[in-house]
Amino acid sequence: EADWAHYGHDVSNNKFSALAQIHTGNVAGLKPVWQFEDPLEGGTGLFFNPLVVKGKMIVLLPSKKLAMLDAANGKPIWEFTPDSTEVNNWSRSVTYRPGKGGKPD
After folding, report:
1. Is pLDDT at 53 greater than 80 in this prediction?
2. End-to-end distance of the chain based on CA atoms, in angstroms?
3. pTM (2 decimals)?
4. CB-based burial of residue 104 (10 Å sphere; 0-12 exposed, 13-18 middle, 19+ buried)?
5. In this structure, how many other beta carbons lie within 10 angstroms of the beta carbon of residue 72?
6. Rounded-to-integer distance, Cα 51 and Cα 57, Å
7. Cα maximum dimension of the chain
């Protein structure tokens, strides 16, 4: 299990993961193991490249809700509707900040 804690994987946005489980010899046989649908929008799309930290996936849904999912099975852990009165475009990403000792501030 590897974290993807920044937009594009790391601060250089290189989108590279050193995981060796998926490679050119087995990619054709991959199958989805779970799919999450935004209940308010009825769609499956996410607005940006999600973050994965400590087995949890942080996503922005088409309904503009921020949600945390269990990365292993897609089950929702929490949802939050941020105040978007000052935000014109939600399509880029969110940022993860671990805080002191790995706990949020």
Report:
1. yes
2. 25
3. 0.72
4. exposed
5. 12
6. 6
7. 48
